[in-house]
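Lab meeting, action items carried over

1. Structure of the five-component assembly. Owner: GW. Status: complete.
Input record:
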Amino acid sequence: MNKVPIDEILNKVNGIKITHKRKTRIRVDVDADSLPTLLELIKGRASYIHLSAITCVDWIADNQFELVYHVWSYEEKCLISAHTRIDRGSESNPAKYVSVYDLFKPADFFERDIFEMYGVTFIGSPRMEKFILTEWNGVPPMLKDFDAEAYVQETFKWTDYNPDWLQELTDQGGGIAVKPEDIRTAGNTHNMSTHRERDKAKAAAVKANEKMQGWKQ
Amino acid sequence: MNALHLMAELIFMPLIAFIVGMMMVLMMRKIAARLQRRIGPPFFQPLYDIVKLYGKDTQISHGLIHDIGIIMAVGGYIGAEILLPVPGMEGIAAKGGVITLSYFLMIPSLGMALGVGQCANPNGSIGISRALTAMLAYDIPFILVVFGAAWHYQSTSLIGMIEYQQMHQWGIVEMPLLAIAGLFALQGMLGKQPFEIYIAPAEIATGPMVEMSGKYMGGLFVMQTFQLYTAGVLYASLFLGGGTSFLTLLPKAFLVVALPMSIAFMFPRYKTEDVIRILWKWPVMLALISLAFIL
Amino acid sequence: MKKELKIIQKERTNPLAHVFDDFISFCQSKSLFMLHYCTGCGAIELPPAMTSRFDMERLGIQPMVTPRQADILLITGYVSIKTLKRVILTYEQMQSPKYVIGICSCTVNGGMYWQSYATAKKLNEYMPVDVYIAGCMPRPEAVMEGLQRLKDNIRNDKKEHKGSAWKDYFNRYDYYLGNQQALFGDDWQTPTDIIAEAKLYDLETEETYGKHTKLLEKHQTPLLPQEMRIK
Amino acid sequence: MNSLVLLVVLPLFAAFIIPVVAKFSPKLSLFTGPVVLCINLLLIMSAWIKVGSGSEAIFLGGFLPPVGIVFYIDHFSLLFSGLIAGMVLIVWPWDAKESRLYSLYMLLSAASFGLVLSADLFNLYVFYELLAVATYGIIAASPISKVPNSSATAASLRYLFISSAGSVMLLLGIAIIYTLTGTLNIAHLATMTTSLDGFAGLSAFALIAIGAGVKAEMFPVNSWVAEVYGTIPRQLSALLAGLVSKLAVILIIRMLLMVFQQQAAFDLLLVVGMLGVISGEMVAWRAKDMIRMLSFSSIAQLGLIFIAFSIAGSKGLWIGMALMLHHLLVKGGLFLMADRFAGHMGKLKGLAKHSPMAAAVFLVFVLSLLGVPPFPGFWIKLLLILNLAEQGGGLYHVAIATILLATVIETAYIFKFVRILYQKADADSTPINKNYSSSYTFAKLFALILLVSMLFVSPISNHLKDIANHSASPHIYINKILPTKQLGDRS
Amino acid sequence: MTFLDHLFIVVFISLIAISALRNLRIVDKLAPVLYGLILIMLVRMSSVAYGGDVYLSSVSLDLLDFKMHWQFTALSWYFAIITVVAALASAVFMSGDWGRQYREQGGNYGMLQLALIVNVFSMILLLGSGDLLSLFIGWEFVSWASFLMMVLSPTKLAKKSAVKYIVYAMTGAMALMVAIVMIYSVNNSLEFKQIGEVFTQMSTSSQLALVLLFFVAFAIKMGLLPFHLWQAIAYAETPGPGAAFLGAISSRMGMFTIVLVIVQFIGLGGLKQLGISFVNMQTLLAWVAALTTIIPTYIALQQHDAKRLLAWHGVGQGGYMLLGIIMFDSIGSAGGLMHVLNHASYQAALFMTVVAVMYRTGTSDLNKLGGLVTQMPLTFLVMLIGIIGLAGLPPMNGFVSKWLVYRSLLVNGQPLLFVAAVLGTLGTILSVYKLIHNTFLGQLRLEHQNVREVPWSMLVPMLGLSIIVFITGFMPGLILPWIASVQESVGLPVIAHHLGGIEYAKGGLDMIWVSGILFYGFGVGALIFYFLGGKSKRVHQYDNYAGGHFLTSDVRYHYSNNFYPGLMHLIGGWYRGSFKWLENSIVSVVSFFSIFFENIYRAKQPVMLLLIGVVLALFALYRNLGVGA
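Predicted assembly:
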């Protein structure tokens, strides 16, 4: 049977928008209720048989979850990523979405993982239960509104670690001159958008080290 | 032979066996290290290990049979040492021949098997089932070798064999093929690398030794020293003429133990059925050919 | 019914005991069996320590497979909550005198996973740790240095009492149990009966019992070994 | 002495009177048969004492031997006539509906007496035919064959064909003998055995043997045995298997001992006997039904008897007789017992629970059949094998081998059956028909006789031995019947 | 009325008594007392076992010109003492609580007691036989008595195997009868001496036939190789202590007759000169014995039912006895004979332990047991002593007889036989460890938590037997004089012995020294263990290393199924029932012939056959008459 071009198939789905297309990558945005039809279409018609992953992104600002289905085709050597947005829901009515387990068997694990990490229940998925964090029975940890650091501060008795040998070192003037927070904020370059800011921060760090070296003599 | 001589023999034979055995263990670990381009353990390491194991404060036991198993293992070998003639002390050794000795060597493995069985750990049981299968495998060539030697020297008592060899040439000269088969069987008996399936650390967590802690583990280390010593001295007295004095016997025993050890550390482990297939094929064939010459 | 508890350190009366004890602690320092529980990424540093370049066997240290035979428990890398349960079980299955060496800074104070919800931060809250080898995967030299330090501690344990941290687990069992229960919940229990062991080797002190051990007794039915009975 | 002729005459007379008597008092007709038989028994008893160890000859109608009919009485014939009377009394059908059956039984007993006593060939043939006719009558009269086109009619028809063919062959044999020797009196024939030595003589003997063999369940011609015994009532099959077959064997043996002393004849009997044993055992091994198993086992036993008779001289007769008596007791008993426990083996599971006595009796019969030491069967089998070994000669060794092989197969199938008996009863095993039948008591009687004979093994065997010595030698036979003639060329 | 008659009468009276009272309660007390009485009478006859003269019985039947008389030689006394001791042990075992449970489960207890006394009676009759005919009658009695014992168990398989046994036994009896007939036909006498004389006069082919026939008859009873298929299942299915009795002594009657007939009268000379092509009779028998030690032992290794495993070992150990006897030298034959007593003692003890385990747990399937050592320690002790005996390790008596057999193989220079025997021993060691590991060691199952030790009525016989096993192992000199007198009465070279063991020129055995050294070793081991090491804490079976996993009772953490996978993988292929094929082929030949004959009987037109026959006869006659007339 002759090969039907992929665009034609994709356009069949209503409410679809091909946002990005390359030889090996196609990104598609589709609304929530027509995603299963898309998957069925590309699986049936266009040899996209391998669902390699389902990922979830927590857009807490617009109170939505974004589910991304990555489907790979061995013949065309091309990956389709279907992005869709579902309502984030709240404590009372948790987020729900339909499961694609009937189309792709591996979906069972991905959905179970997302259920554990984000709290999204997939209707029709075989095992909606704990997956890896068997000991954890708190809030789904990957949600943005869960503050890990606060949890750590609260559960683990955080005692400052200043053993005796460090005491002597600092007594003789050694030790860290710059507080970890400063370094983190100062030397923290990865969220700096421009080169210039980055160079400035590096210089500050260098100066701080010289000060420390100074003490050493 | 008077009571004093008897008491001396009863005490010193196992003691000598223990000391020489520990030196053999050291030699074994040194050879292993040298082959892997390492320095290897310090001189008294086996002694340290054993003392530390016996010095452990807490030990766990799974029941009376677990204790009796270790006692049988160590006791069986002490009995075997007493039956093994050593220059100057072979009063009691005359009482039992080489067949009795080969049976004495089976008692410790049965004792250990009982002890490990009581530990109720499947790793141990799998280890023991492999150990007994390996015993089945290496005992056939070993018995053939013993048969050939006993038939050649026309007597089953080891003292008779040693005297025969002192007068005529050594066993290895008259029965070269049998000696080689004996070495092959010795390789299996010592339970080292190529035929070490039953202490496979990766698969069954050191097999029988999985639940042995403290003095139980110490008992097994002592048993290992006895095992090396018995194998060495038995082979020496069967084929290398057994020394008139310790000075001649010990180098032979050490050489006999060193040979399989150096072969051992260059081989991976065989599966259980391959152990049987190999040990029933080559050494048995060699032994039968040499028997054909002797009989 | 609080049982009258003995003092922590039992004095050995006969003179020979010291000579004998010194010899045993000398041998203990010279021969250590190491069980490295590769919880995290630090385990990769151990093979080089054992093989030809650094050769741990020179120090008399041999790798062993099961906790029953091991003396040293090497915790290499971050310890997630789930793994901590198994680590505690392994630790309790080991026979004392036993030593714990925490490799990598994750065991010291949580390391780079310090703000993760799933990892245990300080190992010594859950079991007495002898030597820490910091470093986000310390090099083999550091591991060898740590092991040497442990051997020295054992060697002159009589003077500085640095080698018998394992007694602390029995002496202050309630503290450790408390921390464990805080993490795993109140019905946390392990098959090994630590209290009975403490009684047997009379290592119990006032601090062995407390609020948490009472909690333990409430819901743990201690596994009593079957006694061999004739009738 | 000539009152013994009454033995044949009385039953014949009764056979014709009974239907008349039945007309006006059925009860009387019921009892005439047994009364006649009791009278015969008394006659036999008195004759037994009078004859002592010798023997008598009765010339009917005063004609001298080569012409007239001669009855020869000695312990051998008296023993068997006594057995006939006893067996028919035991098997008497008390509950038969019409009197026709009684007269047929009377006819049968008359023919049997005649067959045992007469000493000339043609007379034997006549009584043999009478016996055959009586057997057809009884089989046809048996209740099962009343059912239209049932297997019984087919079986009796097939039996009719075979035995008539047999009679034809018997007649042919006698004709050949008559053409060769010109006389039919056995004693006279005994004096002229040389003329019968050639191939013709042997073929005559073969024809007679096969002819009479039909009744004696000899190998090639006994295919009717299983079907007939399967369909007729158990008592009748006990009579047929137990006794009638023995009479036919006696006819063959009388010819063998007196006239055909050639080795070829003995070998023929031996071969036929062996084939009979092997075929009987093999087929019995596959039998699924108890009656079928018993009938094939009786074929095998008769094969054994032929093997015994193939031993020359009085030893053969002695062992043959012992075997015959033993087979009569065991097979008769088993058939009588089968009345209560018939049917497919599978249905008899757990019988031992219902009636342990029946199972025990069955065990006694079976163990004696196999030849297990304390039972008489063992001694007979031991003697048989010892004598066969003494004969030497390859064929006899083969005979020994077949007997032993047969015993092993016999053990296999009998104990397969015993296992079923002693198994736990399950759903489809038939309940035992509880109605009390006389044949079961007689079976227990036979078992008792067997157990008692176990104790007196040596006296019985000595008694049988001198009967055999007496009746096995042709000289006594000839002197008694033809006192005038010398022995002729008999060496 | 000689003493032997008293013995026969006592045994007969006890038979009558037990059969009469078997369903009453007092038979439990009566049976052991009667066996005890028989034992005492045997002991008073023990002068024959120390070189005294033969006991003749005054009764001599002469039936149908055969004379039968009975006598008790040292050989028969030796076997009789084993039989009665085994019977006493199983009677005591049977009449205690086991009997009560057997009755409750619907077993026919009275019949079992009767079967035991019938077995003893027939065995003593066989042992006392004076000539070939009484031997044959005794032989049949023994076969039927053991059949009676086997057929008692309710299972269908038991009955099927019992029938298979009786067919084998009947074949054996027939072979024996033919052999007796061959001897009788030479000069009409059935005395034992006749065997020797007749054998010399016979032609070689009939000599070979005679020896083969005797061997077939005795090999079937003893379960030697080609005829061993019936024994294991039949003995395993016999109810409780009956299996112990049968396993211990019933098949050794074959050994008695082999020694009596083949060894005593045909002797080494006779066997050596006979032979098929290059192999003489002695090596043939030796190889049958050697194969019998190997193949059943490795079949036993695969069984997962304890009784079946032990029964297969019974077959295997029979090979040792024959191997010893067939060497015809002093130590070899002594080994073979002593192995009869040794095997009887520990086989009975082992069977009783398995029955005891069945009594408490209801199953003898090795895959459904485990960890019973804490619940039934004394039974474990008895089984331990039993398996050390069965494996033939030093302190126990099995070692002495195996040492003797090995020593004779060594002296006679038979390397391959030596290897075969060792292969048998090693196989035994492997499978006995599997037996004791799967029943007593390893994890205890939940349902066996409250299993208790078996009552004393079962423990006493077991402990008694295990004491015998130890005592005769520690001081073999106690039973060696019996064996010496047997050797002397049978005409074998007598063994030089002293209390501790055997003196032999090229290296003897002194069990008192050997066991002494072993116990010294154990003592030192215990000293080291208890005084050098510190206190050890007893832990529960779930406190075990499982790779960091928390052991719970729902997951069964125990290894017992497919116990020797490596070995089974290697030799599993050979055991596709090669001998079962032999048996099935015979059955199919018989059924083929039966179908063939059945078709003849179903032939439609028999009459047609007859007519053809008649026509042929007429034609032959006509041609002949035409010529002859």
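2. GW to write a short summary for the group page. Key points so far: The longest helix of chain C spans residues 15-30. The longest strand of chain C covers residues 32-37.
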